[in-house]
Design goal:
371 residues; alpha+beta; four-stranded mixed β-sheet; globular; binds zinc ion
Length: 371
């Protein structure tokens, strides 16, 4: 049997904070600018040709062949990534889903640059041209891991930097666990507390972003008292950026702990695929909560944790009407108003709305598994 080179490998990302000196910060900023200007040059040419009626193949050839003056051997990889990124957007442009490719601004909340040749030694990250940057390597790399690239991130106020190391790890073969009927759980997304499971238990996600809102407001108000771009303005902007980063870390930590708890208790987890873009459009007032809950990221992490133990995440189709079916008698009740308890007119079942939906998702997941 033929085996490809990548079949026995896992791809993983490890993130570490890095602490560049002032000189190194300037070098990194120059690199961010360089990638952005290459991106903008190519995007500008694509937009112009598209408005003059160029087709998909023509645009692809344009992106591939247009020379970038700053391109040299070290930056070749980064420019290739920029080209790839623009080419991936072209089908959307040509099918009319987007009207043009948006140009990058230099005051984006997060800026990044990709590096192909990287190394680590003694708690330092070694990058070409820049040299070694102090790195807080709070956990070891997995056994036998090989680094094949890195992305350096910075927020636009230069409050903190971190690096994402791209790793190739030899895969540990895991035998699939036999799934017991009683050890399958269904999760239904809930605006308050992330999810309700099929036994009616709510996860109780503490809404970290909402908790930090007052602190953030204080920082932004303080920053607005000073001239934009001044030292003290920057100081408060940096403080706000650090709080935002802290929230991201808190959420990630909570989600992994919750995923491990679920993986320990159950053999399989059924979830509903969510139409996040649609939900945000229909209820813009709730989009803040939706971003705070980050259900898509949670399901991804849950899947990763389950697969590592030979267990399964089952995704139920988003068009399955989980909230409209009675979980006791199985009859369709029809659309319910939001924020109401579920009451079945046929058998008289009265349950929490999310609890009922979670029970349906579990049933549908079990049905999918038997196929
Ligand atoms: Zn019923």
């Amino acid at each position: 049997m033929m085996t490809t080179k990548y079949e026995k490998n896992d791809f993983r990302i490890h993130e570490y904070p890095i602490y560049p000196t002032n000189v190194q910060q300037n070098l990194l900023a120059a690199r961010f600018d360089q990638e952005d200007s290459a991106y903008n040059t190519l995007a500008g040419h694509v937009n112009q040709s598209y408005s003059q009626g160029a087709g998909l193949e023509e645009l692809k050839a344009l992106v591939q062949n247009h020379p970038i003056p700053t391109e040299n051997e070290v930056d070749h990889f980064a420019i290739t990534q920029v080209r790839k990124r623009i080419i991936s957007l072209l089908p959307r442009l040509c099918s009319g889903k987007i009207t043009c490719i948006k140009l990058r601004r230099t005051d984006r909340s997060q800026r990044s640059a990709r590096y192909h040749y990287v190394g680590i030694s003694d708690y330092h990250l070694v990058l070409p041209v820049i040299g070694s940057i102090a790195m807080e390597q709070h956990r070891d790399l997995p056994k036998g891991a090989r680094i094949y690239g890195a992305t350096v991130y910075a927020d636009c106020y230069h409050a903190f930097y971190h690096v994402a190391l791209h790793l190739i790890v030899p895969q540990q073969p895991v035998d699939p666990v036999p799934i017991h009927y009683s050890k399958v759980v269904g999760l239904d997304y809930a605006q308050d507390g992330l999810y309700v499971d099929s036994s009616g238990h709510c996860a109780g996600y503490p809404a970290f972003r909402h908790q930090a809102q007052d602190k953030l407001n204080r920082c932004h108000r303080a920053a607005n008292r000073f001239k934009t771009g001044s030292r003290r303005w920057r100081k408060f902007r940096q403080r706000a950026a650090k709080i935002e980063r802290h929230v991201v870390n808190q959420r990630k930590d909570w989600q992994y702990k919750q995923a491990h708890a679920l993986a320990q208790q159950y053999d399989a987890v059924c979830v509903e695929t969510l139409d996040l873009a649609g939900m945000m459009q229909n209820e813009p007032a709730l989009s803040g909560k939706l971003c705070d809950n980050a259900p898509a990221a949670f399901y991804k992490r849950l899947e990763q944790v389950l697969n590592a133990q030979g267990k399964r995440l089952i995704r139920v189709d988003r068009y399955y009407p989980s909230s409209q079916i009675c979980s006791a008698c199985g009859r369709k009740v029809g659309k319910l108003p939001m924020d109401s308890a579920f009451t079945c007119p046929y058998c008289g079942l009265s349950l929490d709305r999310n609890h009922n939906a979670a029970r349906n998702i579990r049933e549908e997941g079990l049905r999918q598994m038997e196929q």
